[in-house]
Amino acid sequence: MRRLYVVTHPEATHHVEGRVGGWFDSRLTARGHTHAAAIASRLRELIPASATVELYSSDLRRAVETATPIARRFGVAAALVPGLREKSYGVAGGRPQSWLDARFVPPPATGERLDHDEGIEGAETKLAWVTRVYRAVDRIRSGAAEQQVAVTHGGSLSWVVGAWIGLPAEACAYASFRASAGSITVLQEDDRFHNRTLHTLNDTSHLAG
């Protein structure tokens, strides 16, 4: 049985400062570091002690800081995968969220949603974002280990799930799998039929208290 544990980084400085995340290279807060340690402990409970583990992470600092205690727990190095980054918001990255909110053009309810121009210079379209994350998941799935961990971001988690269960990119125009900061989502592939399933979505029980 193959499993991919998808971790969304916990609280980062852009969350508490009310800034746009995206490719803005924020760090974990003190609370975020505490939650990253709790994530590592929970993964150690979930993953068999005898298993070989591969660890992948977005190369943004808040994700790398989340991956660090996981790497220590399992005695592995994290492979940095830029494709696991959050969506790029172009010139809005790092600016106050209110700046983006005042300029953002939401996608239409019907019609072209994947190549929609959100009105922000340099921002990725959803299609570019989805394509990038799908390629990152292809790289992860090419790994040999049956127990894998990927550290990503709340928005990009939807496309990790979509890629895993084989959603065509076109379906991502409307698809969404919401996850909280510091969550663990478990994706599974069985050995006999090779069905790939969403086993657990947005588990945050390890953050209690």
Layout: helices, strands, pairs:
Blueprint: E1 2-8, H1 13-17, H2 30-46, E2 53-57, H3 61-74, E3 78-80, H4 97-103, H5 126-141, E4 147-152, H6 157-165, E5 184-189, E6 196-203
Parallel strand pairs: 1-4, 2-3, 2-4
Antiparallel strand pairs: 1-5, 5-6
Helix pairs in contact: 2-3, 5-6
How large is the radius of gyration?
17 Å
Low-confidence stretches: none
Name the CATH class.
Alpha Beta
Order of helices and strands: EHHEHEHHEHEE
How many β-strand stretches? 6
Span of the ends, CA to CA: 32 Å
SS field, number of helical segments: 6
Describe the main β-sheet briefly: 6 strands, mixed
Number of domains: 1
Percentage of residues in DSSP E strands? 15-25%
CATH topology: Rossmann fold
Question: What CATH architecture do you see?
Answer: 3-Layer(aba) Sandwich
Mean pLDDT: 97
CATH superfamily: Phosphoglycerate mutase-like
Helix/strand-derived category reads alpha/beta
The share of residues in helices is 25-40%
Q: Could you give the order of strands across the largest sheet?
A: 3-2-4-1-5-6
